[in-house]
Structure formats: structure tokens, C-alpha cells
Amino acid sequence: MSAYQPSGLARAAYVAASNGLAMGGGPTSAKNPASRGGRDSRYSLAALWSMAAENDIEVDDELTKAQRRLRELKLKISSQSKRNFVLERDVRYLDSRIALLIQNRMAMSEQQQEVASHLEELETGEGYIPDDRRRQLYANLFYLLQSEPRHIAGLARIVSLTEIDTLLQTVMFTIFGNQYEAREEYLLLSMFQNVLSAEFESATDFGSLMRANTPISRMMTTYTRRGPGQTYLKSVLSERLNKMIELKDLDLEINPLKVYEQMIKDIEEATKQPCNLPRGITAEAAAQNSDVQAIIAPRVKTLMDIGSSFLVVIMNSLEQVPYGIRWICKQIRSLTKRKYPEASDSQVCSLIGGFFMLRFVNPAIVTPQAYMIVDGTPQKNPRRTLTLLAKLLQNLANKPSYAKEPYMMSLAPFVEENKPTFNKFLNDLCEVGDFNEALEMEQYIALSKKEIELNITLNEIYSTHGLLMQHMDILCPDEESHLRICLSDLGPAQPTLPRTENKTIQLQLFSRWDQTSHVDSPLAVGADQLTKGDFLYMDTKAIFVQIMRLVPGLAAQRPVSLHKIAEFAATARDATLVRKGLKVRDMLQELEKLGLVDPADGHAFMVEEILKELAHLGDLREKVNIEINSLETVYKTIQDHNDYLRSQLESYKAYLFNVRNQSGISQSKAASKPTAPIRLTHQKLEQDGIIVESNIPENRRANIFFSITSPNPGTYLIALCFKGRDKPILEMDLKLDDLLEKQQMGMQTLDVEYVKLSVPKTLTLLNKSFNK
Q1: Could you give the CA distance from residue 682 to residue 701 in angstroms, rounded to a whole number?
Q2: Residue-level pLDDT at 208
Q3: Dmax over Cα atoms in the chain, in whole Å?
């Protein structure tokens, strides 16, 4: 057996054991079969083998089939989650554009091509990077980003809010997109550890922590929307929220001014006469009205009862809260105590509650239809009740502030009564183990895998590359850093592609700096580490487990004879069994010669471990089946959410179609006959304040005029022309919603190369000329 070389799994086991992670599973002598693990751990070599069981392509038993089904389901969930994220972004975009059009009080059509580009499906065909060298460099870059999350953490801290959605799509749903792959989840949480540490380090005062709408807060919210978080919210909140939205007539408004105004309406409807109560009074005056007080009092009690019922459900769900959510809570508590050691427990809990309730639970309570938690869309009264409920629970989680909404003070008894219990729940959320050891174990398992694949779109590659190049000097100032070397080799980023050309490619991730020589040379170990005999023992045991999985009846025979099992496999008709039988027969003989197993006692210790491993794998199959059932529910929920988002997009299409019909311009006429152009001189535009700055020489301005046409509703073509010339000096395409967006953002001027135009006055001119 001098030619024996440890398998990939044995090498992984070696690294685990030599780092003190693995306990049990291989003898160092026949008399003392204890492992050399250096510290107590919940992992064993048996667990290590079973974690890798699904990689054994030669065993196709019920466990393998279930694991394959589970793996496929996880990939489908991850892929669907990514599509949903993109759809949500499209819905937000169109929603903002329509809001701008409404604000402009114009019955106008959204520029059709612009809308179409946001309603198209993501291109799913296969794409390619023409230069194979660049493909390899990108594979190296994204391996680095995935395996060293600090780089993405640094980028997340410095990008703008306008850039964060694109980055989030790539990070949450591509680089760490397999939401149920432990290695990717642990690496993603490592990134959060970096992000949160920096957030606390840069905080100027306690009150500013985790309050603002920053790229980091957006990232944390997006994390809660992944599969495990969605599953938790639906399982915990669904029943009660569905009951709430059925109570369509239950009015629990407690804002005195709104109650007062509704009371007047009710009186007038009942009496058919104008009410003599004073109008336009203040909220304080409304709160002093005895009738208003009588209406509000029972509503406050009902709201507190509803709040209590939700609180009980949430606090009883501690064990259902996803590990990642609890781990983030743990980091918030730890970092707060480190940064502000004088902070009280109540203050610390307010930050934990700020994440758990504000970013995670409350959005699902306020808009349960967006989370596919309820069967319908809440109507007016239930919608207001859910908003008040979310405010109540948020006041419980955070330090209450009644300055903006004094009427919420009436619910203060609920907060005072439940605050201690809820703070205990928030602290209990933080009581989870760390993932460092588990991450190490997953990394060792990864050593046995041949490759890591990443399905990624071309635009995700180019936009990530562009952001990294833009911030390279901050992220990697050291010329020798691996990230800077990657970026320098790649050079400038390519511009992103039109949506229809944005193909998906597959990158085989690798690292050119990966040092695995210590893993490939198991003989070069010290006296206090595993020997070659230990590897031989582990591989022999693994092959016996594989044979007994392929022929389940062998495990039922008593006593279990390893020689007979090896002989049975070696003489079987199945080629796979024969190969394994011949190999394991020789390996067992070698172990006997080395004195690592004893044939006199029937190899008792190895037999015992094999039977334990088979029992463990049997239990594992049950767990896998339970997880499959759970994830099938998750997948259906995510698909339902996809249907909901698509229906929203269809609603926008219908809305925009109606806007076009109401604009007074028939579609056929608009398509065949563009609106007549208008011509305005430079002098006229300057006099009217539309041109606010001009780079055109004074002596030429008299011969300059502007021709403006509207080829499609909402789209304008501005041509800068010189008298006597057929072709314009400059042509510029301008979209109405871009102008409206600039106005909303407070941008006063529009740069048209030679001149700067006033945004509000340009809007007025276009409305007057084309949108009567």
C-alpha cells in the first residue's frame, strides 16, 4: 500500500483535526483510538464525512436523492429571490416616475422605450466575455470578494444610496446568493461583522447609531428579506395578520384630530344637517373634546390587547428566528457595549430592537401583502390599525418618543408594562453561538470540492468592477494587496450593457494565491498531528460506509464482518461495488499490518464507528426531508411574491395606457404625426430666464436659435441651430421625467453643453408648448 494517497475528504479531515476541530473518528494506535483533536468541539469526523456525503456521486441511495432535491430547491429559491429583488427595484422605479408625472399635473405618457426597458425580463441566455484572460481575471476577482468579505464591507460603507441597489443585487443574490449554503451564509455574516464594526467605530454619538437611511441600513434590510427571514415572518405572523385584515369595519384611529373630523362627518350623515361643531381646530383642542375622549378610550384598550397578542407570538418564536438575524443582534449588542460601556441595558436593547423590529418585523406588519403573508390587500381601517400596531411595537423596542405624535402617549402603559419582558427577549435573541468554528469546517469541506461556480450577469460583473475601480485608493491603497493587483490587471471597467444584452455567464472561481501545499502533503506533519495511518483509517471507514449505503441489507447482518463485506463487494456484479470492494479489502489488510485495527476482535472499534455513521446518516435523511418540506413552502411563497410584483407592473402598464388615452392626443395621431416644432432665439430664451448661462460668443448669439420638437409624449428633442446652416450644431434628447426628477432633487440648472437652462422655466416652457 505504499502508493496510497489520502482522498480529498481525508485531506480536509486532516486540516480539521490538525487545527483541533475534529474529535473522534480515527485511532492513533489500536489500543488508544482517541483522536488528536486539540479542543472540545461539537463537530466530529463522523459529522465531517456526513457533511460531505452529498458529494459522493457513486452512492445514489435515498439520502443522496433527498440531498440532491434539497440542493436543487435551495438553488431555485436563491435564483427566484434574485428575480424578485430586480422586480421590486423596477416597481420602485416606475412608482417614482409616475409620482413625478402626477406632481406635474400632466396627463402625459411615460416615454415608452424607457418604460419598456424596465418591464422586460432579465436576459437569461448564456453570455461570454470575449477575452478569455479577462474571464480568468474576473474569476479570480470574485473568488477574492467571496472568500474575503472585508472588501465588499469596505465598498458598502462608501457607495452612495443611488449605487447601493446594484451592489446589493450582486452581493446578496449572486456572490453570496445561495441562501442555504452554510459557507456562503457565514462569509456574508463576516461581511456584516466588518460593516457593523466600522459603523460603530465612526459613530459620533449613541443617538446616531443605526438610525439613518444609509447604504448599510439598506443592506441589513435586504438581508432580512432573504428566504429564511421570509419563512419566519410568514410562519409567525400569517395567522394573526389574516384575522386583522378581515376586520374591515373595525376603526381604531386614536389621533384626536382625525377622530374629531370623522365624528363631524358621522353627525352630518346621521342628521342630514350641517354640524355646528367648530372646524379647523388644533389637535390639542380636539383631544380636549369629551366625545372624542369617549371614542378613543376603548380603542386604546383594543389596540393594547392586539399588541399583546402579537407580542406573545413574537416572543414565543425565539427558536424560529433565523440564525443570521440573531447573530446580527448579537453583534449589535457586543459592539454597543464595547463602544459605550456606560450604556444601560435598556439603551442597548433599543438598538437591538431597532434592527429586529424596525428593519425586520414591522415592515411585514405594515405591508403584509408585499411579504405574501396575507391572502388579500388590507383595506383602509385594517391598514391604519396595522400602522398603529407597528408604531406601538416600535415604541416598545426603541426608546419611545411622543414629540411628533403626542396621541401615542395614550399607549404608554403598554410600553411600561411590557418593556422588561421584551428587553429580556431581545437579549435572548443574542444568545447564539459564533460561526467561526463552523466556517472553518465548511472551508475544510470545500477543500474536497473541485471548483466553486458562480452564475452572474455581465452587468453585475461590470458594475462591481466599476465601483471597485472608483474607490480603489480607499479600499486597497497598498500596491501589493491582492485586490489592487486584480484590479490593476483588469484595467478600466467596461460600461454596462443594455438590459436586453445583459446575459448570464458562469465563472469557475479560483485563487492564484491559494496556498494548499500543506493540505496536499499530509506526510509533512509534526509528531503531534495525524499520521498517514490515520488517513488510511478514515478512508477505509468511508468506503465501508459507502458500500453499506449501496447495499443496505449488509448493515442488518450480525455480527458485522468487514472482511465478508469487502469480499461481497469485490465479487459483486456491479462495477462500482467491485472497485470499492477490491480497494477496501487491500486497505483493511494494510491497517491490520500497521496494528491500527485488530481482526481478533472483529475490528470492533471500526465496526462501531461505521454503524454509528450509518445511524447518523439515517437521521440526516429524516432531517433533510423535513427541510425539503419547509423549503417547498418557502419557494411557493417566493413564487407568489413574484406573481404579486408582476401584477403591480401590469397595473402600472394599465395606468400608463390610461394616461396616454386621457392626454388628448390619440395614439395613432401621436405615432404618425409628431407635434410641430417650436423655434426660439437665444435672445428670447435669455430674456425669459430660460438660459441662465451661455458659452456662445456674444457676436454669434444673434444667429443662434433653438428648435424643440416632441416626437413622442414625454420626450423632447432640442436642437441648437445656426442661421443659414442645414444641420444643427448640437442635438439633445430630453425626457420629461428626468427634468421632473431634477426639479424634485432641487437641481436648478440643466447643462446642454453650450448653455445652461433653468429647470423650472424649461418645464414651464415645455408644458405650455406641448402639453396643453
Answers
A1: 6
A2: 65
A3: 111
β-bridge partners, 707: 679, 719
Read off the C-alpha cell for 579: 472497485
For residues 220 and 235, membership in a common domain is answered with: no
Mean pLDDT by 10 residues, the chain (772 residues): 52 47 43 37 43 53 80 81 78 70 48 47 58 90 90 87 80 80 79 85 72 73 83 91 91 93 91 88 91 95 96 95 92 90 90 90 89 82 93 85 81 93 95 67 48 84 94 92 93 86 86 56 39 79 85 82 90 87 90 87 86 79 81 81 78 63 43 70 90 88 89 80 85 77 74 83 82 57
Site of grid cell 485586490: 483
| Percentages (nearest 5) of helix, strand, coil residues in the chain | 65, 5, 30
Closest CA to 607 of 535, 586, 599: 599
Q: Which residues of 278-307 are buried (b: 16+ CB within 10 A; e: fewer)?
A: eeebeeeebbebeebeebbeebbeebbebb
CA distance 103 to 737: 11
Contacts for 545 with CB less than 8 Å, ≥ 6 apart: 49, 610, 613, 614, 617
Show the CA angle centred on residue 520, arms to residues 516 and 522, nearest 5°: 120
Cis peptide before 559 (omega within 30 of 0): yes
**Of 732, 720, 724, which is closest to residue 696 (Cα–Cα)?**
720
| Residue 512 domain flag | no
Give how far the C-alpha of residue 725 lies from the chain's centroid of Cα atoms, to the nearest Å: 56
Question: Do 482 and 548 share a structural domain?
Answer: no
3-state secondary structure at position 508:
strand
d(CA 328, CA 325): 5
Which residues 6+ apart lie within 8 Å of 184 measured at CB? Answer: 146, 176, 177, 178
Based on the fold, state whether residues 234 and 182 are members of the same structural domain: no
| pLDDT for res 636 | 83
Q: Is residue 21 part of a domain?
A: yes
How many of the other CB atoms lie within 10 Å of CB of 717?
17
Rg (CA), the chain: 33
Q: Do 238 and 355 lie in a common domain?
A: yes
Taking the C-alpha atoms of residue 295 and residue 749, their distance in angstroms, rounded to an integer, is 52
Residue 514 contacts by C-beta under 8 Å, 6 or more apart in sequence? none
Q: What is the pLDDT of residue 286?
A: 92
pLDDT at residue 615 in the model: 82
Same domain? For 561 and 680 the reply is no
- Phi first, then psi: what are they for 712, rounded to 5°? -140, 150
Q: Please give the single-letter amino acid code of residue 643.
A: D
* Domain end position, chosen among 408, 429, 450: 429
- The residue among 312, 331, 184, 291 whose CA lies nearest residue 239 is 312
Name residue, grid cell 492513533.
28
Reported as type and span, the H/E element at residue 678 is: strand 675-681
Q: Which of 767, 566, 759 is nearest to 108 (CA)?
A: 767
CB atoms within 10 A of CB 226: 25
pLDDT for residue 465: 95
Do both 389 and 408 map to the same domain?
A: yes
Please name the amino acid found at residue 42. Answer: R
Q: What is the pLDDT of residue 653?
A: 65
Distance separating alpha carbons of residues 349 and 407, to the nearest angstrom? 24
String of DSSP letters for 449-488: SS-EEEEEEHHHHHHHHHHHHHTHHHH--STT-HHHHHHH
Residue type, 77: I
CA nearest 671: which of 112, 104, 107, 106?
112
* Three cell numbers written together for 383: 391598514
**3-class SS of residue 624:** helix
Sign of CA dihedral 21, 72, 86, 483: positive
